[in-house]
Amino acid sequence: MNEIFSTATYKKRRSRLKEIMGSGVLLFLGNEESSSNFKDNWYPFRQDSCFLYFFGLNMPSLVAIIDIDNDLEIIFGDDLTTVESIWQGTHTPLSDLAEAVGVEKVMSKTDIAQFLTSLKDKSIHFLPPYRPENTQKLASWIKKPWDEIPSLVSVDFIKAIVSLRSIKSKEEIEELTKAVNISVRMHQKLMSEAKAGMKEYELLGMVTGEALAAGGSLSFPPIITIEGQILHYHNYSNTLTEGKMLLGDFGAESSMHYAGDITRTIPVGDRFSDSQREIYQIVLDAYQGAVEAAKPGVKFIDVHLLACRKLAEGLKGLGVMRGDLDEAVEKGAHALFFQCGLGHMMGMDVHDMEDLGEEYVGYTDELQKSDQFGLKSLRLGKALEKGFVITIEPGIYFIPQLIDQWQAENLHSEYIDYEVVAKYWDFGGIRIEDGFLITETGAQLIGDPLPITLKEVEEWRGKI
Q1: Residue from 464, 463, 394, 379 nearest 430 by CA
Q2: What is the pLDDT of residue 84?
Q3: Under CATH, to which class is 7-165 assigned?
Q4: Is 415 exposed, middle or buried (0-12, 13-18, 19+ CB in 10 A)?
């Protein structure tokens, strides 16, 4: 199944790209099938997002070229052989698929090397390859050592694509809304079914089923765990126990390959404990403050730091932090409890365009990424623009090994009361996350709302 936007959409996208680039040859490498444990046992295929954005075809073994100076667009690929069709069924001819996305010329993939050689002294622009087979192809085609390929990528090409993909069109927002609404149903399933005695992997199966039943897939491997202090936990082996919290960070990818990404933290029972309620409310206050602050022209790094300040204020109220909080946040003392960034771009990739480089997607020549612990994990720092789609996802995480290390080094002890922190040593972690569209006036929640306040979450859990 290959759902696509209108022919005009893809032609318009390529036209705008050609206007920005001006001249040269633009090379797009699609993905190949990827084997799991033997050649013909493949992982589910997922096309490269830039290829999808400009050419729309979710099929393996395709390459596309735009020769700007000669006004030429070509898709290289081959139709299935009769033998292949025995196993895979008959497919629409590639020429017909190309026509549907506005490309008139199709050539065999065996012609790529000769075609590129014929370009002689023309500038060939390509993007950073993230799969080794594409690195090898590029090395062969342009006759360069494979380890030089990363240094030869086109920064102009990257920046042009980032400028286009960062601003979401109306039809893209509709697809993102579909993905988020499937993600909401996935979370509702978890919030309804989770109970003491279950394994995390049981819930993984349930939420995955919700995505597939809606015609979608997973936008990334789900995080479903009672070990919420582990930021990206994919073990799924724990048994849910009363008194623990369950963190679910997952989302769906729509049939048109747009991502959802939502996080909720819920009690395994029907109510949070007193200490869980206190920490949850601090995280929610930071979330709400960040949502209110996010608007066009505001640097997201400033929204991040505002959220960090709110987290620090809440922790100071509990005696966990102390001293001058502005200094504490500036020096990164809060990062003992919030080690990651506040959010990221979201689109065809859950971390949108991350393969192109965070320095181009989330930062600018003037605004460079920090090397400070915690802040260096912020994927998006630059000023927000109307049409951006971002996540906002503050959290508080009590990571035992990190606490032990900082305490042993007496790190930031003027801002952290380690005796009080010890009371939370095995607390776990809480994260809250939603996706937002940046509008003219602020940040608009994408999709249907999901229970988020303490009252809403406990009321939902109380129905079980």
Answers
A1: 394
A2: 87
A3: alpha beta
A4: buried
User: How far is residue 249's CA from residue 219's CA, in Å, rounded to a whole number?
Assistant: 11
Is the predicted pLDDT of residue 120 greater than 90, yes or no? no
Question: In the numeric block, which tokens belong to residue 50?
Answer: 């830039």
SS3 label, residue 425: coil
What would the two tokens of residue 198 be?
Answer: 């279950």
What is the C-alpha separation between 287 and 278, in angstroms, rounded? 14
CB 101 within 8 A of CB 10: yes
What's the mean pLDDT in 223-235?
Answer: 97
Are the C-beta atoms of residues 392 and 437 closer than 8 Å to each other? Answer: no
| Token duo for residue 237 | 């082996």
pLDDT category of residue 282 using cuts at 50, 70 and 90: very high
How much is the pTM? 0.97
7-165 and 170-462 have identical folds = no
52-64 pLDDT, tens digit per residue, is: 999 999 999 999 9
Query: How many Å apart are CA 111 and CA 4, to the nearest integer?
Result: 26
Instruction: Give the residue-averaged pLDDT of 31-46.
Output: 95
The answer to whether residue 232 scores a pLDDT higher than 80 is: yes
Question: Which is the CATH superfamily of the domain at 170-462?
Answer: Creatinase/methionine aminopeptidase superfamily (3.90.230.10)
Q: State the Cα torsion 144-147-148-150 to the nearest 10°.
A: 120
Distance CA 70, CA 93 (A): 26
pLDDT grade for 464, boundaries at 50, 70 and 90: low
Domain ranges of the chain: 7-165, 170-462
Determine the 3-state secondary structure of 7 from DSSP: helix
